[in-house]
Q: What sequence folds into this?
């Protein structure tokens, strides 16, 4: 039995060439502005400043909570007179010394942990003992051992840096694939050359994380330590500036000192660490 099959004519639809349509959709001005990370962060800061000003006006007590514009005026006066800049320079100079020394000691401890079992046991034992202990708790002992001066600050700064930096660096070294380790051994790399040429480049994300965490710990420890050492010796950086103005009931200057601490933290986070990550980790495809 023959089947009746209907033959359908072929149908062709001519599509316009791709060159006649834009490859990418054009964004509006508002969308282009929203894609800028710095603008979004600036908007967040403006919202926080507005909430601060409204809360201060509702409180209506400048001794307890001065307004944003009053604090901004005190901050501008402190910068213009140079006092805040001098205090910040003193704090940053001390911070840089303790930070670099702590990083160097952490790298030595991590290298020993990678090289031998005894070093690994030493690092794990010391970090388990001292990492939970805050550096601020050692301020009385630091004063007792080293007295008033630079060595007391350096001691607590190094202590606040070394453990978090060592833990992050060691975790990064442990995460290096065995393939890369075997490549290094095949080229005859051993000791410090193996660590510098194989382990450090592969563990850069963990090392950068350790640098950031250690910086935050060191910065907070320094301000707290200056509140104690500055009050005792009559000199110091931003911590002493905050403590002194609190005693004199200049609350706007206290907030100005706190804002300066925050601004330095923002500069370090976005301009220093952010740019380092941009030109290393993101450029090499190690981070999104």
A:
């Amino acid at each position: 039995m023959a089947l009746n099959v209907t033959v359908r004519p072929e149908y062709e639809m001519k599509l316009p060439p791709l060159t006649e349509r834009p490859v990418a959709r054009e964004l509006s001005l508002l969308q282009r502005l929203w894609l800028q990370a710095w603008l979004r962060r600036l908007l967040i800061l403006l919202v926080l400043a507005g909430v601060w000003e409204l809360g201060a006006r509702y409180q209506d007590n400048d001794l307890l909570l001065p307004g944003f514009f009053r604090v901004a005026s005190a901050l501008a006066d402190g910068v213009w007179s140079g006092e805040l800049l001098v205090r910040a320079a003193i704090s940053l100079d001390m911070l840089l010394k303790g930070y670099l020394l702590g990083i160097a000691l952490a790298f030595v401890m991590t290298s020993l942990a990678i090289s031998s079992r005894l070093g690994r046991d030493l690092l794990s034992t010391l970090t388990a003992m001292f990492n939970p202990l805050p550096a601020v708790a050692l301020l009385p002992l630091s004063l007792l051992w080293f007295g008033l001066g630079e060595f007391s600050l350096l001691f607590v700064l190094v202590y606040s840096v070394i453990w978090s930096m060592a833990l992050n660096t060691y975790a990064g070294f442990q995460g290096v694939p065995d393939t890369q380790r075997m490549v290094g051994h095949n080229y005859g790399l051993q000791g410090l050359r193996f660590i510098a040429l194989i382990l450090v480049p592969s563990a850069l994300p963990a090392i950068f994380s350790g640098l950031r965490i250690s910086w935050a710990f060191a910065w907070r420890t320094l301000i707290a330590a200056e509140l104690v050492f500055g009050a005792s010796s009559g000199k110091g950086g931003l911590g002493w500036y905050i403590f002194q103005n609190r005693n004199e009931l200049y609350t706007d200057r206290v907030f100005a000192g706190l804002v300066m601490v925050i601004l330095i933290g923002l500069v370090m986070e976005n301009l220093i660490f952010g740019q380092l990550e941009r030109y290393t980790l993101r450029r090499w495809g190690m981070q999104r």
